[in-house]
TrEMBL record:
Broad class of the protein's primary localization: membrane
UniProt family annotation: Belongs to the major facilitator superfamily. EmrB family.
Full protein name: DHA2 family efflux MFS transporter permease subunit
Highest rank taxon of the organism: Bacteria
Gene Ontology MF term list: transmembrane transporter activity
UniProt entry keywords in alphabetical sequence: Cell membrane, Membrane, Transmembrane, Transmembrane helix, Transport
The species this protein was found in: Nocardioides caeni
Subcellular location: Cell membrane
Membrane topology of the entry: Multi-pass membrane protein
Classification of source organism: Bacteria, Bacillati, Actinomycetota, Actinomycetes, Propionibacteriales
Domain Major facilitator superfamily (MFS) profile: 25-489
Membrane-spanning parts: 25-49, 61-79, 91-110, 149-171, 177-196, 208-230, 236-257, 277-301, 313-330, 342-360, 366-387, 466-484
Entry's Gene Ontology cellular component terms: plasma membrane
């Protein structure tokens, strides 16, 4: 049952009337959001160089990314609520400060262990920022413009996914791998100044925080992800199996607690009564796992098998990036008018086709244009996924659940990323151990080209096998988005665009 809140009610759930032109605030937020998402993938192309410079293993360097994503994913549920309580702008600026300082720390480290610790701090800063961006956009844009605004936000995630490796390659080749982190410092300063000036300070309201839910979800995620990633290294010892089992049990207890908590659960399960929100969380979890997973095998193949420099390897991503950027605007325009099943279903199907083409042709002597075509096809599909999924996820949610919805959506994407990175590490290690025993540890996975043609072919086979993981995620996402229902927002299917009410509560 819904009821209209009169104009005299406190403006804690809707702030559209306070911002006459919300677009400058959106662009200010996009800069910081783009930066933290680039850092999800920027390390992938520098992986061989970091392995060599820091005398690390493939699994160690994958943890450089996994640690960031884990620290990003675990707190993001509670940071969304903290933004509602203490101000989304305040949390965003605080997180941006932590992220920027941690980036400096990352660049100054000299051991892989120290780099992992610094990345944990960096990920925590990112977790403070991300839900604020989505919640602020939801609150400052009127319903008739919210789809277009969220399309920009979602497209930013898709573009960042492919720009990260390209930027990482250029910086690693030109200045050294440390600069993939140092570059965040000037960008962070500019993003802080713009957000300080252009993002409004929205009304806040009290929350009761579900600290038990935070503890349960954090422990479950750590046990599951650490157990999955280290399982192959430890030959699936009893304590690894126990860790994964304990994580699964804690996750079940967390879900049960969210159902029983009558105060204010960390994850209001009522969110999932909206079918489109539920479908969107599945779709974005798949995309998170793909974004985190596919870069590692591809970049290792390009540098170890083909002998590419980091920049040359990153250029394999250019067709994907070009198509994602070129199509972002027209797809954004369609988001408010077309059924989300049509757009995202087409996107997942095309991306899956492109990825299967890439898998088929990933051989030592394949022409580079063939890889480029496959990546371009994947880029076309991705452009039809990121923005429409983000726009559809929160379209029907009331303003009172803006922070919670943003937190759950972003946490879901990050959970997918963490599990994707953990699983790809297992697959790469196991397939390298199968084809080239000893290559998973050092040497053959480093920055130098594999001279032996037979070994190069086996290495390619190992990377092909690992890439079946992201391919399967595209297939899962395709099935999920077929369950989208027709939206009911203003403007869709000829529905009239009504003036926004002062606020809507459930």
């Amino acid at each position: 049952m819904t009821r209209l809140v009169t104009q005299s009610a406190p403006p804690q759930d809707d702030s559209t009337s306070e911002v006459t032109n919300p677009w400058p605030a959106l662009w200010a937020l996009v800069i910081g959001f783009f930066m933290i998402l680039v850092d999800l993938t920027i390390v992938t192309v520098a992986t061989p160089t970091i392995i060599e410079d820091l005398d690390a293993s493939v699994n160690d360097v994958v943890w450089v990314t996994s640690a960031y994503m884990l620290a990003y994913a675990v707190p993001v549920l509670i940071t969304g609520r903290l933004g509602d309580r203490f101000g989304s702008k305040n949390l965003y600026l605080a997180g941006l400060t932590v992220f920027t300082l941690a980036s400096l720390w990352c660049g100054l480290t000299t051991t892989v262990e120290a780099l992992i610790v610094a990345r944990i701090v960096q990920g925590f800063g990112a977790s403070m920022m991300t839900p604020q961006t989505m919640a602020i956009i939801t609150r400052i844009f009127p319903p008739a413009q919210r789809g277009s605004a969220m399309a920009v936000w979602g497209a930013t995630a898709g573009v960042a996914m492919v720009v990260g490796p390209i930027l990482g390659g250029v910086l690693t080749d030109g200045l050294g791998w440390e600069w993939i982190f140092f570059v965040n410092i000037p960008v962070g300063i500019v993003a802080f100044a713009m957000a300080w000036r252009r993002v409004p300070a929205l009304p806040t309201h009290a929350h009761s925080f579900d600290w038990l839910g935070v503890a349960l979800s954090g422990a479950a995620m750590f046990l599951l992800c650490f157990g999955i990633q280290e399982g192959h290294q430890e030959d699936w010892a009893g304590w690894i199996v126990a860790m994964i089992t304990a994580g699964a049990v804690l996750l079940a207890i967390f879900i049960l607690w969210q159902r029983l908590n009558r105060a204010e659960p960390l994850v209001p399960l009522s969110l999932f009564k909206d079918r489109n929100f539920s479908v969107s969380t599945v779709a974005i979890a798949c995309m998170g796992s793909i974004a985190a997973a596919f870069g590692f095998p591809l970049m290792l193949y390009a540098q170890a098998v083909r002998g590419y420099s980091p920049t040359e390897a990153a250029l394999l991503m250019v067709p994907m990036a070009v198509m994602s950027i070129f199509l972002a605007r027209p797809i954004g325009r369609l988001t408010d008018r077309l059924h989300p099943r049509l757009i995202t279903g087409f996107g997942f199907a095309v991306s899956l086709f492109g990825f299967l083409l890439l898998l088929w042709r990933l051989q030592p002597d394949v022409a580079v244009w063939e890889l480029g075509v496959a990546m371009g096809v994947v880029g076309v599909g991705n452009a039809c996924i990121w923005a429409p999924t983000a726009a559809t996820a929160n379209r029907n949610l009331p303003m009172s659940l803006a922070g919670a919805g943003a937190g759950v959506y972003n946490a879901t994407r990050q959970v997918g990323s963490v599990l994707g990175a953990a699983a790809i590490a297992v697959l790469m290690d196991s397939r390298l151990a199968h084809y080239l025993p000893g290559a998973a540890a050092h040497g053959d996975a480093g920055a130098d080209k594999i001279a032996d043609p037979h070994a190069a072919a086996l290495f390619s086979n190992a990377m092909q096998d690992a890439l079946w993981l992201p391919a399967s995620m595209y297939a899962v996402g395709l099935v999920a988005v077929l369950f989208y229902e027709a939206p009911k927002h203003a403007g869709f299917g000829g529905a009239p665009v009504a003036a926004p009410a002062a606020g809507i509560k459930e």
